[in-house]
Amino acid sequence: MGEGASAIIEITCDVMTKLHQGTHSKDAFTNNLHEVVYHIRCNDGTRVHATMMAAIGTAGELESSCDRRSIFVGTPSPPDSRSGGGRRIIPTLDCVEQHVLVTEGQNSNFGQIRESWEVSGRIRTASGQTLFSFNPYYQVFNPSRYYDPTDESLVGRPHFDCQTEVDGRRARGSMCEESASVVNHDQPGSAFNGAHRMVDINANNVNNEGGAEIWYTDPFGGNGQTTPFPGSVLQFVSSTSNSGFDTHGPTIGRNRPYSGSGVHSPN
To answer: Which of 70, 103, 104, 206 sits 20 to 30 Å CA-CA off 59?
Structure first.
């Protein structure tokens, strides 16, 4: 290595995460508060174990999977929900009419009804310092529902769109063929069971050089203190800083359905 050259260090990480992400009911149309559990450990010393209630997007609203426009659905659930960063991208009736309902000889573009819940999470001290920020995208390729404002329940079902033809148009393609012998959307065998998922890891920024590693925060990851208080949640943030480490690209579960015998909506 020549004079002045710097070594390139390959950073590898192990990640385990869980999001409360129901894609079978109307809950997420207005409810933006969902639990996130996030664990990451990297060979550069980055290590975080976080559990929080994430406010994903604006309460009472969703974003359409077709054109990302915001749609007001109704009163936030719960009514005192706070708005947060990120967004909940959810398929809508107009997406289905434009891309899924097709005539004979055509195939539906089911990629247009993919959901993406994009989290913008932070662990912050009581003084407002951000110790850790992360923004994973949790994606679902085969949700069992979409937003249908014309239905009293507000819920449409891709499964039933495979079965019902209107003006010569219905859902068609391999997912419909896979579900052909299944009567209801919530029975095993329906391809629309919400089990084909992946997570984009994205940025993992730690800013805690020389700081305490054990923190106690409120359920939303704020008001962090080094001693517990009533209702606090324990968080772990390594005593390091990684100058905005952004993994852009790695995913968990790409092209891997987590389905199996007996799996069905809701799951």
So the answer is: 206
Is residue 43 within 8 Å of residue 11, measured between CB atoms?
yes
Supply the DSSP symbol for 129. -
pLDDT, one tens digit per residue, over 200-236 is 999 999 999 999 999 999 999 999 999 999 999 999 9
CA angle 267, 255, 158 (to 5 degrees): 50
- Residue 50 Cα to chain centre, angstroms: 16
Strands 87-90 and 61-64: parallel
| CA distance linking residue 124 with residue 216, whole number of Å | 10
- What pLDDT digit, counting tens, does each position of 41-60 carry? 999 999 999 999 999 999 99
Total Cβ atoms within 10 A of residue 118: 19
Average pLDDT of the segment spanning 17-33 = 96
For residue 214, the cross-strand partners are 236
Residue 40, strand partner residues: 15, 48
CA separation for the pair 264, 192 (Å, rounded)? 8
- Tokens representing 95 are 């997406």
Domain ranges, ordered by start, for the chain: 13-249
Separation of alpha carbons 131 and 250, rounded Å: 23
Structure-block tokens of residue 260: 């199996």
Encoded tokens for 23: 């894609």
Could you say which DSSP state residue 75 is in? S
- Sign of the four-CA dihedral 191, 193, 194, 198: negative
Q: Give me the phi and psi of 47, to 5 degrees please.
A: -155, 125
**Residue 26 structure tokens:** 């109307």
